[in-house]
Design brief:
Blueprint: H1 2-9, E1 15-19, H2 24-35, E2 39-44, H3 47-59, E3 64-68, H4 74-87, E4 94-97, H5 112-140, E5 143-148, H6 161-180, E6 186-191
Parallel strand pairs: 1-2, 1-4, 2-3, 4-5, 5-6
The structure holds NADP nicotinamide-adenine-dinucleotide phosphate.
């Protein structure tokens, strides 16, 4: 029975890219995939923290590598996918678009820069990475994309109209890509968490009605 379970749930031989794997939800996703046998690549902006995490995973016997990458910058996203492609021989089984940011303000207070930061980090980067990953996911023959969205993209929560819009766009993109890329054997899904205690919320007083 345990052999059957292990075979059923093993990700041995699978390759995965998880964005934003040094903290919070992404960190847990990296560990879970790697513990099931996947070879995982992750990224974040903080090189010291990324290297610390990679050492920790190595000491646990997990196969995880990483790139320093600011996902807001298009050229850095392209470089990230080149690294992934060369490391995984042009095949990617799993793309987890997890990295995200949150700026809490009233709509009347948001600046142009706030809008750009949140939409670029949360939505544009996930859209572009999915485009870049498409040939790799197709080559794998059983590709998977998971977007980490939010309940905020489904219902109205105060102080987060830009964040909510970025997640709402992600929810719709999931439906479009799932239909468009089914022919390429790429499954596309969204996970929409409610509040999870991570560093993202450390500086925010969360209020809900
Ligand atoms: N926590 C919640 O309650 C909650 C609820 C619903 C949805 N979510 C969603 O879940 C996802 C993960 O959230 P979390 O709470 O785990 O966040 P977190 O603890 O702040 O972790 C975010 C991760 O993304 C990385 N990251 C952020 N901006 C980046 C950028 N421009 N380029 C590259 N990496 C970047 C961070 O590393 P660096 O900062 O070093 O780059 C970190 O590794 C987000 O999409 C968030 O919207 C969270």
């Amino acid at each position: 029975m345990s052999d059957f379970r292990e075979q059923r749930w093993s990700l041995k031989g699978m390759t995965a890219l998880v964005t934003g794997g040094t903290k919070g939800i992404g960190y847990a996703v990296v560990e879970e995939l790697a513990a099931f046998g996947a070879i995982v690549h992750t990224c974040s902006r903080n090189e010291t923290e990324l290297n610390q995490r990679i050492q920790e995973w190595k000491s646990k016997g997990l196969q995880v590598s990483g790139s320093v990458c600011d996902l807001k910058i298009r050229a850095q996203r392209e470089k990230l996918m080149e690294t992934v492609s060369s490391q995984f021989d042009g095949k990617l089984n799993i793309l987890i678009n997890n990295a995200g940011t949150f700026i809490p303000k009233e709509t009347t207070e948001f600046t142009e820069e706030d809008f750009s930061t949140v939409m670029t980090t949360n939505f544009e980067s996930a859209y572009h990475l999915s485009q870049l990953a498409h040939p790799l996911l197709k080559s794998a023959g059983n590709g998977n994309i998971i977007f980490i969205s939010s309940v905020a993209g489904v219902i109205a929560i105060p102080m987060c109209s830009i964040y909510a819009s970025s997640k709402g766009a992600m929810n719709q993109l999931t439906k479009n890509l799932a239909c468009e890329w089914a022919k390429d054997k790429i499954r596309v899904n969204t996970v929409a968490p409610w509040v999870i205690r991570t560093p993202l919320l450390d500086t925010v007083e969360v209020q809900f009605y």
